[in-house]
Amino acid sequence: MKLIVIFLMGVSLAHGQPIDLLDGKSKVERPNILWIVAEDMSPTLGCYGDPDAVTPNIDALAKESIFYTHAFAAYPVCAPSRSCLISGLYPTTSGTGQMRSAHPLPEGTRGFPEYLREVGYYTTNNVKTDYNSADAARLVEACWDESSAKAHWRGKKEGQPFFAIFNDMTSHQSRTMVWPHEVFQKEVQAKLSPGEIHDPAKVGVPSYYPDTPVIRKGLARYHDCVTVMDQNVGRILRELKEDGLEENTIVFFYSDHGSGMPRHKRLLTDSGMRVPLLVRVPAKWRHLVPNAPKAGEKTDRLVSFIDFAPTVLNLAGVEVPDTLSKSRVVGGGEKREWVYGARERVDEVFDCARSVRNGRWLYIRNFHPHYSWNQRSVFSDLGEIRQEMYRYEKSGMRLTRGQEHYLKRTRSVEEFYDCETDPDNLRNIVTQKLTREEAKALAEAQKAFHRLRRETNDVGCLPEGVMVDWITREGKPIGDIVSGKAANKPDLVGIWKVADSVGRGVEIGVKALSSDDPAKRFWGVIALRDREIGNPVRSLLVGLLQDPAADVRIEVAALLASDRKHREKAFKVLVKELDHPTWAVALRACRAIELRGQSARSVLPAMKAVYARTRHAKGDENFFLAFSSGAFLEGMGVKTDPWDFSPGAGSFMPPKKK
Description:
Blueprint lengths: L9 E2 L6 E2 L12 E7 L17 H8 L2 E7 L5 H10 L3 H4 L17 H7 L3 E5 L9 H8 L2 E3 L13 E7 L4 H6 L2 H7 L25 H30 L6 E7 L14 H4 E7 L17 E2 L3 E2 L3 H8 L23 E5 L9 E5 L3 E6 L11 H4 L2 H11 L6 H7 L6 E5 L17 H20 L8 H11 L3 H5 L9 H8 L7 H6 L5 H10 L7 H9 L6 H11 L6 H11 L5 H14 L7 H11 L5 H16 L23
Parallel strand pairs: 3-7, 3-8, 4-10, 4-11, 5-6, 5-7
Antiparallel strand pairs: 1-2, 4-9, 8-9, 12-13, 13-14, 14-15
């Protein structure tokens, strides 16, 4: 009898290479992949043409890299964008769009480095995670062999491929404008030689800033931070070369969104969403990107953060899950036609806006046009440059178009920019007579916006309290609920229809006030903000002060608080909601009171109580409530503890009094 031996071999779907089925680890050589991620930085680099940049290391990397001119973040703020990067899902789909949210991700969602670990990669993350989800701890555990300030590829085994991320905080908003200037000088500027320090008198001043000494000082400080960040990039690249890994490692350099300076971070304009992106592919691995531009060449390929996870998996020879984007940064994939962007609550500041961007045109839809792009925010307002802009606004000086866009107390319902002729997004052509070309482009952008919002199951139309109610009631993540994996689901199409009426008239909004859907009632109230409403509608609103949904009660109270006749009732509702068990709902009430200013003096004791219980308590919920209640108290002339975000100040908390 003959003995028959059968060898079973798997095949990598990406490269047709053998895989050892016994341990799931690939026998084929795979590239190392290194991400160097700068914080809060627009393309203010020498290689991108910034005349004030002193960035020799990144400029040298650019000469060896594919150079992207149209790369964009998912959100103009860190945590939502980072949730997108790790999961490969739009934050608007997963419910991670609100800053420091803690909602669960759709069931089965895995961080993409977990797939890399399964085929033998050593994965490390240096310092920052910020995944903005209830699943953050699980993601860290599953994705990283090490995630710490010491994490480095040097912990890998001999011959083991690695995926490593280094997050550099040097250009973060805290360093560029929030820390006291003397702390910046000690912690950041001291690392520069005299010739590398930027002279405030010589830096360029964008037209959307007033040209004052304080503004120039802030801009010079920002560029100093970028220069130190560049030095850190140089150190990491030298270590790669010293370890003999340079020719076996694909390097990505990018930032997590636009700079932390005013009119950048938190805005959906290019200054908030456009990021630098360089990808260096060594000759050994160029076969993975056969149609890519040559090293040093520019590409106008449209790239979104949602493309990063599938790109890395593809380069590593790992099958890309069907749930991820079909577009790629490099290495094939479908050509992206539009980037979808979003802005929601950031810290204590509530907002809702969406954008679409193609190679030339930027369309923005504002769903809270009654708020400025430059809403007061405690963390940002610690910056001298922000305070200078407030002073300039109050001075009565005539504002330029760009300054008015940022400082104006309200904003346009729609914004539309030709980014080729207007790269700073200063001329909102929606407000002007459109040419035939512009009208056609606007119609295409609006169509793309509605299509992407629908296709991605954008849950941003659900107020945070309503979203929590859905998650609690159905016992599933919001992403699964809206995709039909629960017994019930919200009518997103109908809710967005009401939201679309904001700025368009009151008819749809008034009708929505009688809906049995709390989210529709919520947007019905928003649609009536800053609108003339008659007594019948006002009476209907008064009745909604007892609405079953807290988000609705709060927005109605915020609207009626401007009416002397109903002010007392409105403030009673807001004060009661300060103790709501869902902290984001309590924060909505607190912020509504804060924005009423002196007219809310009668509720001063309640706001003192909020401040007292949150100011030195741990947790984001306390942090943001302390921001808002403290700002209100300061406006009333009440002394509060100064905020100090400097190193050693206690994790964003000032030293307690002795």
